[in-house]
Hints:
The complex is a heterodimer of chains A (253) and B (258). Chain A is mainly alpha-helical and 253 residues long. Chain A has one domain. Chain A contains eleven helices and no strands. The longest helix of chain A has 31 residues, at 50-80. Chain A is globular, with a radius of gyration of 19 Å. Chain B is mainly alpha-helical and 258 residues long. Helix content of chain B is 84%, strand content 0%. In chain B, helix 2 runs antiparallel to helix 3 and helix 10 (204-217) crosses helix 11 (224-255). Chains A and B meet through helix 2 and helix 8 of A and helix 2, helix 7 and helix 8 of B.
Amino acid sequence: MRNVLRLVWFDLKPDLKPPVWIFAEWTIFLIQVGIYAAIISQLVTGVDNYRQFLAVGLVIMITFDMASHTGRHFVEHAHEGRLPYLLSLPVSRSKLFLSIALQGGAELALMLVVPLTVTLVLIGNLTWISVLACVLTLFWLGFGVAGLMLGLSFIAFKSSDLYTAIVTGLSAIIIRFSTVLYPFIFLPAQYASAAAFSPLTYGSDLVRLILGFDPSILLNPAYAVGVLAALSVSTLSLGLFLAQRLVEGVKSA
Amino acid sequence: MSEIHVIFALARNDFSYFFRTKWLMAILLSLNLSDMLVVALVYKGMMSIDYFAYFVPAVIIMGLFAASLDTGRRIWLAIREGMIQYELSLPVSTEGLVLAYLLAGGAAALVYASSLMIIALIVLPAQSILSALMLLPFLFVLAMGLAGIAATMAAIASTHGEFFFAFQNILQGTLLTLSTVYYPIEFVQNVLPPFLVTIVAANPLSLAAEAIRQYTFAGLPVEPIFLGKIFLASIPFALIGAIAYLWALRKIQVEGKL
Lengths: 253, 258
């Protein structure tokens, strides 16, 4: 375990000296919730307290960004020659992948600490159980998305440019075609069917349900739990399978 | 080759680099088109105003802003990769080099925003396409001003990429939030203190978005004073950016690095 932790710290250290990205993410979140959400919620008539609704959506977006960053990080490491070095260390493959997952989790925790605290304070009237369930759901979603990005990494071994273009383009679309910014009932029929395939739809609605939002504007939580479980298990397994086959002898484009 | 030719050759090179960056095009197009065709449409059903008509013109300005800011990334990349040393060795003055980057930034952003404008004209009925054409030179000046902001950030961040991208994200978020791109000024007045409302009203992004809404899509006659305001609000940014980038280049010339 000491080796795993050492690897986690090895990867985490550059992000913390100085932690510019973390402060930037917190600042942007505070501007969005403090100004943007406060003003736009005055225009919204279809949702009670849209500011709280949007704050949860923004937390989901950070989770998604961080998780996809973890997946992309892996590909960048392969591309930049860092992965061959890591593979040459006297550490088993499973420990190496565990360290990547833990590093993603640690980064996500650092990024979320302020946004999630502000969101929970804004919503108020919460129990420890709901807070804990919310945190666990966010990490669960994060692992699923990171697995998805790892699964897509096989494209990067053909062309890293194409991978970056697909992943970044896909990220914006996955967020827009989901319930991160608006409830499912307001989506036009043709968009609703696309949103039903977005993992963020289920993640955000499940977190909102846990935090006490009106269930009538959310999706059935049973579906959400099922989809998130299927997503994290399938994408992480696929990602591990593809990565194990592709990284040996790294043929990065 | 006269200096003006070298400036245009450099500007053309930088201009084409913007459109050749696949991942950037993927980000910009997916963000702006999904904002226009998904977010605006869904919000329309949830809001007290016709948000589609309000937000679609604003997406053009958001695209212009994002594309202008990419000038900073290209400058930062040129500094980090040492490309700047080669460019400084060309038969062009330092001022000419700065001008080339600002021209390329402004032109790339204008071409990108024009493509968004065409899509906006398809999805939202316009009252005056002539007004849209009249606005283009002012949008070009605005784009140069915004490219100037990006150049300032690139010069300040030097070779520290993480600082540059963090500054860029914070600045982009702040300038867009403190504008009327997303919401009408009446709603801003209900939430923000008067001094911030003044900043929101004077923000060149607010002015440009309002100009497109009023003159192109609502069909109101173009007011030269309003266009003058866009010009005046944009010029200081372009000047500050040019001076900051010039300072950075001079430092590289003297010390070999930033």
